[in-house]
Amino acid sequence: MHLRDCAGGVVFHEENVFLFKNEKNEWVMPKGLIKNGENPQDAALRRVFEETGITAEIVEHAGQTYYEFYSITRQMPVCNRIAWYVMKTGSEEFRVSEPDKYTDGGFFPILDAIERITYSQDKSLLVNSYRKYCRITGRLPKY
Questions:
Q1: In sequence order, what are the beta bridge partners of 59?
Q2: Is residue 6 part of a domain?
Q3: Domain of 105: which CATH number?
Q4: Which whole number is the average pLDDT over 72-97?
Q5: Backbone φ, ψ for residue 82 (5° rounding)
Q6: How far apart are CA 64 and CA 133, in angstroms?
């Protein structure tokens, strides 16, 4: 099995969180590969910006997720190990920079985002990240 290290962001603007829909109709958060010599925090900020045009800042580590798939190109199973970070941004402006990969996106209220997100481990990550975000920013959770 081939292991790939990735990083991503759970990006909040006030009470909303950013999600986008990929080509498989899955609602996900921005993430991508860590380049050689890059630290996970820099990779997460870079991937969020590259995929969404959002300039964000990291407020706390969110956790890790793992997922496996079979790579037709490599002809072997691949495991993505993703380091996630709670992020905040001062604007809801974004752009989907890879329209062949992502068909829709936006900032959604937390309860709407939890309903939309496709994978259960990402739902858990979002809920825990929202708790951390509320604690750090002094907000009262909306659920």
A1: none
A2: yes
A3: 3.90.79.10
A4: 94
A5: -115, 120
A6: 16
